[in-house]
Amino acid sequence: ENGTLYVANIKEGKWIPLVREKHQVLKKNFKTQLDVMIYAREAALMVGATELDRPEDVAIHPKTGEVFVSLTNNTPKGNYHGSLLKISPYDGDHGNDRFFASTFLTGGPNSGFSCPDNLTFDKKGNLWIVTDISGSKMGQGVYAPFKNNGLFVVMASGPKAGIPIQLGSAPSDAELTGLCFSSDHKTLFLSVQHPGEQSKSLSELTSHWPLGGNAIPRPAVVAIRGPTLERLLSS
Predict the structure, then answer these.
(1) What is the pTM for the complete model shown?
(2) For residue range 194-225, what is the model confidence (pLDDT) as tens digits?
(3) In 35-62, which positions are buried (b, 16+ CB within 10 angstroms) versus exposed (e)?
(4) pLDDT tens, residue by residue, 45-65
(5) Which of 52, 81, 155, 201 is found 20 to 30 A from 164 (Cα to Cα)?
(6) How many angstroms separate the CA atoms of 217 and 8, rounded?
(7) Contact 96/90 with Cβ under 8 angstroms?
(8) Rg of the chain over CA atoms, in angstroms?
(9) 153-158 long-range CB contacts below 8 Å, 24 or more apart?
(10) Which residues 6+ apart lie within 8 Å of 120 measured at CB?
């Protein structure tokens, strides 16, 4: 009900107000501002917004205020592995209508991850990433080298700064989502979605996670804690 919705022109580094009265093309195609808001994607393209490769999540760096966006992939255009977009506010002011945009990391065999999905930062400014290769494509073709989806961290400092490090692997056919730290940053929570989704039947299961044995696979929320996590957050 209040405020102004803006869309991004990545090439020019400019925020464009999605306001009917400010654009003749919007006046021509929409009767009211409510129509503009309902058909925001169509309206955005009319005023020069940049199409992106399937944005999945947004995280804000706790120290710099820079905005990171996970772009999962765009297979029809040959982008199989996705990337991470970084948006830096002009003069450090998020209220400015100008910004700088750059690619922070590109997915693929060289970086070791593919199809970034959810993101979060810890208190040290390390970036945590989970991936979402489609279950129907996992282990096949260009995705074969990555095997299952994974949990990655990109350290903010130290000898491995800027390099994605894999810390965990998802069960068969599953994706990891919903990264979240506890308030004391001693526990990392994440969700395991649709393990075994490629199973053909209850007698041909591709996963038995989390109970093992002959159990049917089930989604769950996992809490990760321990010395490895503590070392990462104290370094």
Answers:
(1) 0.92
(2) 999 999 999 999 999 999 999 999 999 999 99
(3) ebeeeeeebbebbebeeebeebbebeee
(4) 999 999 999 999 999 999 999
(5) 52
(6) 41
(7) yes
(8) 20
(9) 153/126, 153/127, 153/128, 153/129, 153/232, 154/105, 154/126, 154/127, 154/128, 154/129, 155/126, 155/232, 155/235, 156/124, 156/125, 156/126, 156/127, 157/124, 157/125, 157/235, 158/235
(10) 59, 127, 128, 179, 180, 181
User: Do the strands 55-60 and 6-9 form a parallel or antiparallel pair, or are they unpaired?
Assistant: unpaired
Spatial contact of 153 and 167, defined as CB atoms under 8 Å apart: yes
Single-letter amino acid code for the residue at 167: L
Terminal CA-CA length for the chain: 44
Residue found under tokens 């102004």: 4
Are 128 and 119 in contact, with CB atoms under 8 Å apart? Answer: yes
Pair of tokens at residue 199: 């199973």
Residue keyed to tokens 């120290």: 63
Place of tokens 């450090």: 92
Query: Residue 214 is encoded by which pair of tokens?
Result: 């002959």
- The backbone region for 60, taken as left when phi is positive above 0, alpha when psi lies in -120 to 50, beta otherwise, is beta
